[in-house]
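Bug #77: duplicate submission created two jobs. Keeping one. Sequence:
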Amino acid sequence: MRAGLDWPGLLRAGLQGLRLKPAEFWALSPVELLLMLGLEGGPAPMARARLDELARAFPDRSALAQGGE
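Kept job's structure:
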């Protein structure tokens, strides 16, 4: 069986925990609700070290450095 969202649990958390009105609850996207509940669970934002690694791997080159005009 495929796992889905626990709508009864989310509804309880939204109405009782966050004190949302039903219309406010149903107007939220699941992602917005999870963020409000502190359950975002998405990937962590890129850290500075990873940005530096990507900058070294793919350096910006100006047109002059490439022999352009």
